[in-house]
Specification:
This protein has 191 residues and is an alpha+beta fold. 28% of the residues are buried.
């Protein structure tokens, strides 16, 4: 009896949950004028920034070189994508909870690309506000296609909207700590 009651409660919660499909992506993803078609080294992150009128900050610190840290400094990760299609684009359909996001909410997109051992970051040129949630429950909000600057990648401590590809430069203290650790290992080996 308890199992049946538990199952009924679960089914009731699932039936009452509002969900919608959100179409999002990026077109013609390039690095240094080379299209990144079918590249498993490319990832996309849809990021919730806030309510209507929210914009990107001036820049975001990428010196940590941790995607999750960088994404959380920008906003809240909603969905991810990997490997652009044969045209070099992301066309993603994600299901999301409409009790969390609705009309006017603002999203941005972060791309990452790993090339020759470096991870490059690129933030969309602009944010996009969600529209099209008119049905009860909504079924298909308008497609969000983000645009990017694909300027040559360089080393930097920050990434900004429309700033092109940037590889993280580790903090000088990180290199010093690594050298100190190496020195301790060598000293330990001698002892």
């Amino acid at each position: 009896m308890k199992k049946l009651l538990g199952l009924a409660v679960c089914l009731g919660l699932v039936a009452s949950a509002s969900a919608a499909t959100l179409n999002w992506g990026a077109a013609t993803i390039k690095f240094d004028s080379t299209s990144l078609k079918n590249s498993e080294a490319v990832n996309g992150y849809l990021i919730y920034l806030g309510g209507a009128g929210t914009a990107f900050s001036a820049s975001y610190d990428i010196s940590s070189d941790s995607v999750s840290t960088i994404v959380s400094s920008i906003g809240t990760q909603v969905a991810t994508a990997n490997k652009p299609n044969a045209l070099g684009t992301f066309n993603i359909k994600s299901t999301f909870d409409t009790s969390k996001y609705g009309n006017g909410d603002v999203f941005g997109m972060l791309l990452t690309y790993t090339n020759e051992g470096k991870t490059y970051y690129n933030l969309s040129t602009a944010t996009i506000g969600m529209t099209g949630l008119v049905e009860e429950p909504p079924t298909d909000p308008d497609k969000m296609t983000f645009s990017f600057s694909y300027a040559s990648g360089d080393d930097a401590k920050t990434v900004s909207a429309g700033g092109g590809w940037h590889a993280a430069v580790p903090e000088p203290s990180t290199a010093m700590l690594a050298l100190a650790g190496l020195a301790l290992l060598i000293k330990r080996r001698r002892a």
